[in-house]
Amino acid sequence: MLFDDTYRTIKKPSEGIFRDRGSKFLAFAYPVNNEVDLKIQLAQLRSDHPKANHHCWAMRLTIDRSVFRLNDDGEPSGTAGRPILNTLLSHDVTNLVVVVVRYFGGTLLGVPGLINAYKMATEEALKQAVIVQKTVNDIYTIEFDYLQMNDVMRIIKEDGLTIIAQSFDNNCSITVSIRKMQVNQTLSKLGKLTTVIAKYEYSL
What we know:
This protein is an alpha+beta fold. It has two domains: 6-134, Ribosomal Protein S5, domain 2; 136-203, Alpha-Beta Plaits (2-Layer Sandwich). It has five helices and eleven strands, in the order E-E-E-H-E-E-H-E-H-E-E-H-E-E-H-E. The protein has helices spanning 35-48, 81-91, 110-128, 149-158, 183-191, and strands at residues 6-10, 14-20, 23-31, 54-61, 67-71, 96-103, 131-135, 137-145, 162-168, 171-179, 197-203. Strands 2-3-6-4-5 form a five-stranded antiparallel sheet, with helices on both faces. A four-stranded antiparallel sheet has the order 9-10-8-11, covered by helices on one side. A hairpin with a 2-residue loop joins strand 2 (14-20) and strand 3 (23-31). The radius of gyration is 22 Å and the shape is elongated.
């Protein structure tokens, strides 16, 4: 299989609500890139909803969608975090967290009821979200001599690279974002220029 260099995520935070027998399930979806983002959003929701009974959540991270975390926050095991995560899986989205804040309405919903409620609240939040497709990009810093500026800029233009940062001194450097699928093509062009060094920084 060819490496898939695209992934789906949400453009900006969104919210959904689901009610069942007096209980309110407020779902909040946030784009995140790491666990620090998650902690910030959780802390914010806990301060916004201090009287809520539960703050259950599931998160998917990384472009290959391999990292996930979930938390039932006191609900019976498997009734909250797992249905939230399963909904993210079925929508094939990553780099996001959905937190469902529950206000208990006095009537127990039972395991099937809880699973359904957390799933439906997550569905509602994703329904309101703008889902975008992003490409996986590698970030490279190109270092070169000022005299080679035109050659380097020509390749950047030809390959449609996004410039993230640049500094032009005696030694010049430009940091660019290259779509994963075309990295080899771009690097081989740059490799033909003498004294040009392309250094891999990280993937995005």
